[in-house]
Specification:
By secondary structure, the chain is an alpha/beta fold. It is 40% helix and 7% strand. It contains 9 helices and 4 strands, in the order βααβααβααβααα. Strands 1-2-3-4 form a 4-stranded mixed beta sheet.
């Protein structure tokens, strides 16, 4: 393994525009990430998020997110991302920081379950963080293809994109075949309301709140 680079830490985060102001702020964040924060990949820091947070909804994101990484997941978002030991207090503090930036009803603890062991290992911690800071849950599923039976075709496309062959053991690939668009019933089966209160309902809450109208021409 190559040594970790402390100057190249970056995390994934899901940010959605709730209204026209949020959409303009999202464009500002994307532009500044490329023009001011670019370092191998575009980046933005907490100060920039705070400056353009109005009208935005954010979540803790996938395993590559700041909060999940502080919970000590084995899988990092990128090969050169620093692997971190479990720091539950740090994860709570990070979640609290983002909640302060985006607002209490605009920052969600995202839960995912694609059958990946690391996701299940941090699930209890994520639920506890949500309870401790009073943040709502959000059930989510990464969608890299539309139907479950497209997983193999998508894997072949990844090989083409990365110049690999399917027989290579250490090539880039997704874990499992759960990265498709799941139905509401499938998601509610994965995240029952008695264990994940509000997690599935909150997807509809966000969809109803999001009201961005783009004018073309």
């Amino acid at each position: 393994d190559r040594p970790a680079r402390r100057d190249n830490i970056r995390y994934h985060m899901t940010i959605l525009a709730e209204n026209d102001t949020g959409y303009r702020n999202l464009m500002q964040l994307a532009s500044r990430a490329y023009t001011e924060g670019y370092y191998y990949k575009p980046r933005m820091d907490a100060e920039l998020l705070a400056e353009y947070s109005e009208g935005l909804i954010a979540t803790t994101g996938c395993l590559g997110g700041h909060v999940p990484q502080l919970l000590g997941v084995d899988e990092a978002a990128d090969d050169d991302q620093v692997r971190q030991e479990r720091d539950f207090d740090g994860a709570v503090a990070a979640a609290g920081m983002y909640q302060d930036i985006f607002g209490k009803d605009n920052f969600f603890i995202e839960v995912q379950d694609h059958g990946i062991p690391a996701q299940r290992r941090i699930m209890a911690d994520l639920l506890e963080i949500g309870r401790s800071i009073g943040a709502p849950l959000l059930a989510a599923n990464d969608s890299h293809y539309t139907r479950a039976d497209e997983a193999d075709a998508h894997d072949a496309l990844l090989c083409i994109q990365t110049g690999s062959v399917k027989s290579e053991e250490k090539r880039f690939r997704l874990q499992g075949s759960e990265f498709y668009v799941k139905s509401a019933s499938q998601m509610r089966s994965l995240f029952p309301s008695d264990e994940f209160p509000g997690a599935c309902d909150n997807t509809l809450w966000i969809a109803e709140r999001a009201d961005v109208k783009l004018e073309f021409g």
